[in-house]
Specification:
Farnesyl Diphosphate Synthase; homodimer
Chain lengths: ~325, ~325
């Protein structure tokens, strides 16, 4: 726990100014015509997100020598895009909590949640247009195409007990990694990076994104609701097959398989039953395997940075990769 | 009726080739990773839309001397964007029918409808990015911002009986006119039109869009379900205050006001009651006023074309403006 707090504090102390400027830019660039839109968007946007995606874009640009002054303004598009998908996904998944507050669709109704998500999505693309770099605009639009299709696939997979690890990796790539990869790559492109640096930061972002989602799927079975800020055991309740279960199923006896399958999507799981379930995942190696796969992705992300000169910015990006694994929420 | 069929046939015979190429481009550029996404998107996209928006872009480009070969590919983004908003709006409005078929959210569920709408929205922005014209990309992103906010405002206005004509015009501008205006303007920009022509086609598209929406709101009280392809009297049922009612209310006695207000959002309105309601709107001048306002917008749209040389393309755009008023669906 202590090393967790240490890493978090070490990162935070070095990005205080960046985060403050990103926060300002988040408010400045929202610009809805309507106060209600600001309220609904703000409900998710200003509920204590970590601003990881904007920060990654800013740091990636800096690592490639960006010296303009529009990086913070552009960077917030990744938070808007992230918030748009959170709002739509929570509605799609019928989630109850988000960032410790009630989900937007419950607070404001499905209709307003859909439309505010649309607005944030459009706002992020307007900002992308502002870069004037067609490649960046294509990336941002492509991210949204990938994410929506990843969610549809995940929806279709729901309840499927024969999902393979490869199918899982494909889903989390679209769901999480494309956005984080896009943020890092946009930073590189804004700085006019050469192809090699562009490729290195694209790789870094991809592996970091995969690590984050695997760590997230692990947290669903290891964290408690309070620190996670969303309902614990939500994946189990929704019948969402993530890596801890996929691995556990592959190593389960027939009796264990029946038990796991019986728990998937079960209504009214008690705390006691949930604990027993996570113990089964642990025993079958599902939690350790997921942790190891995530750690391997972190290592690949850090390795991709090795082509850059050592220094403050590279250190920070490296620390952020480690942070993927140690965060509690 | 005969003149309606005549105008429709006259337009159709001159754009047969364009429409066939647009239809091909709609299939070719959809490109989902997933068959399910293709099915859901296709449910709305290939249910007999008029392709008005792509056609307007293509004709606007041609009027400004466009001689490239990417116009059809780019033009379909306006149909994708239109389909995306139809899917989300039908969900938001809890509509039952669309283009004569059951609405996507009823057929595939809310979740898939939200995500397929997101995909189509993203697809349209990817195509915009392909133009490589930052102004075009900004316009497309701006359209989506406007449309989502227009829908939220309409939602907030629902049930309000004191909506003014100006507020109504603001809603239909965002809801309909910005997209049609954007299609015409994109055509001009793709052709590298000068500022004056850009402005003229922007005006044309704006007034045409306003005319279309007013005519549409009128049709809700004058057409029958079969020819409209969506549920008749839907606006009344949803308690949506459109121009026919706004004008009628302004000219109603206290008793008539109470009657109209009592009918707004009423459950289980019979065909007999609905007929009586439309007769009241007719008697109070609501239908005639809306028709006249729409006709005035058509005249403004046609007037905006006067700066262009006469010829086949200008004639077609002029006929399309007339078509806004005479269509039955």
């Amino acid at each position: 726990m202590n090393s967790v707090t240490d890493l978090k504090d070490r990162i935070k102390s070095r990005v205080t100014k960046d985060l403050a400027e990103i926060e300002d830019a988040l408010v400045r660039n929202l610009n809805p015509h309507d106060d209600l839109v600001r309220d609904i968007a703000g409900h998710v946007l200003f509920a204590g997100g970590k601003r990881l995606r904007p920060l990654l874009m800013v740091l990636s640009a800096r690592l490639c020598g960006y010296d303009g002054d529009d990086d913070k303004n552009i960077s917030v598009l990744f938070e808007y895009l992230h918030a748009a998908t959170l709002i739509h996904d929570d509605l799609v998944d019928e989630a109850v909590l988000r960032r410790g507050k009630d989900a937007a669709h419950l607070r404001y109704g499905n209709a307003r949640a859909v439309l505010t998500g649309d607005f944030l999505l459009a706002r992020s693309l307007s900002l992308a247009a502002r870069t004037g770099i067609p490649k960046v605009i294509g990336i941002i639009a492509g991210i949204t195409e990938d994410m929506s299709q990843g969610e549809i696939r995940q929806l279709t997979n729901k309840g499927r007990l024969d999902l393979t690890e490869a199918e899982y990796m494909d889903v989390i790539e679209r769901k999480t990694a494309v956005l984080i990869r896009g943020a890092c790559r946009t930073g590189a492109l804004m700085a006019g990076a050469d192809e090699e640096k562009d490729r290195a930061l694209t790789d870094y972002g991809y592996h970091l994104g995969m690590a984050f989602q695997m760590a997230d799927d692990l947290l669903d079975y290891t964290a408690d609701t309070l620190s996670l800020g969303k309902t614990i055991g939500a994946d189990l309740k929704e019948g969402k097959l993530t890596l801890p279960i996929i691995y556990a199923l592959a190593n389960a006896s027939e009796a264990e398989k029946m038990y796991i399958e019986g728990m998937m999507g079960k209504e009214g799981v008690t705390a006691q039953e949930f604990r027993q379930f996570t113990e089964t995942l642990e025993r079958l190696g599902g939690l350790a395997y997921t942790r190891n796969m995530a750690l391997a992705a972190v290592a690949r992300a850090k390795n991709a940075l090795s082509m850059f000169e050592t220094g403050e910015t590279r250190d920070l990006l490296s620390m952020l990769a480690d942070y993927a694994m140690v965060r509690q929420s």
